[in-house]
Protein 1
Amino acid sequence: MLTLLFALVVMHALLDFPLQGDAVAINKNPLAKTELQKHVPFYYWLGSHALVHGGGVALLTGSVRLGIAETVCHFVIDYGKCVLKYSIHVDQALHMACKVLWAVCCVYGIVPFDGMF
């Protein structure tokens, strides 16, 4: 379980920080009201960002169900942070709690596990 959890956390770190471009980081926020959002609404930016995270989880676990769950959770968690319901610290803690839950689901057979680890 530790190997899978570590891989999920590393994937999250990569996708949430160095691989998330400035355009996504800014425009996924509904409060930003940027010029670009006039053409591409915030929920497209946030949805695609969340979907990339879901793809990462699906890739590592081999579970599309967990990938979908991650997509939904990541969207909701980031939305809450963007509209100032909580801090980035709470945001990241919630993301890590999801990773623990996905690893537990795989290791204990709650979802079929056909992943890389």
Protein 2
Amino acid sequence: MRTVISDLLLDIASEKNGYSIGKPWRFTEHSLAAVVPIIRVTKDTRNYRLLSEVKNLVKIKDTGHIDKIELINRDEYPVLIKSGEILEGGTQTRTVTVSQIVMPQEKVVLDCACVYSSKGIMSGQDMAPSVYSPMPVRRKVFQGHYTSGKLDNLSSDLYRYDSKIQQDIWASVNQHYQSSARGFSAFAADVGEAPIIGSISYATPEQDLAGRITETQDKYKDVLKEVPKLDNQVGICLLTMSGLESMESFNHPESWEAIRKAILGSDVSSIADISDQDGLFEFREDKAKSIVRELLEKEYSEKVAVEKEGTATYILDEEKFMGEVVTLYDRPIHCAFLKKAS
């Protein structure tokens, strides 16, 4: 049965309603990853904002509970809070676990998880958006989705938070810490310019995910500068030698522009992987579009995670991929997909 969710995915796959799948880009011919842009030409006016755009008008406060953060939207627009966004302040750093729209003047309690295990909770402390969680952390976050429960203005019960999921997320933070160090050492060796690109070592504490992401972005700043900024771009897909790894797409170019740096920066280590120095692998540019279409044309189960007046968040699931779609006034405004861990 066709739904607003399947309509969105099929619009992108069939390149209708202004959507198109762009030309893949790789950092060098030795890269083992490619970025595929999603484009949309539209005359629609955007009727929402992202958290990073209105952070001074959104009040975020630590509730004192590891898996709950209070947020009040004082902006005139609905605000999209994205799963994977990291919130920091004078308290324990968290990542948002379920995307949702917060309406003007609405107060909600967001579901979240800790991404800084050695930093204590300080109830009542203000928090603010920081960076975006890398792929290993987002995978563990998505694994905690469940689909019963409703949201009201005081509390939420949308996410199956438990000690195992939290331990898995902490383990993914450590995985990112280790892989980012190895990745940058290999990158520096491959380009042969270690004195130019900066110190091989990292100064960030092992448990500080946000700090590690920020430091990594700085180390790879020349790579990030090379990623094309396209007119009317609304998202990207990341392809590696293992196939399609992730996809993020919005309904409007202004939304992508608002979060572009954070999303690219979260997975820049993959984008910068140029370890195929001997040219052992062949990148098939002609297959990139078909791989993206295969993702979008799959049969997903759709279940509601958030449902309130004017907006909903749906969790999508199938054998190899998991995803999320947010709607506003019965129109999809954002979708995200991740390949499941093998």
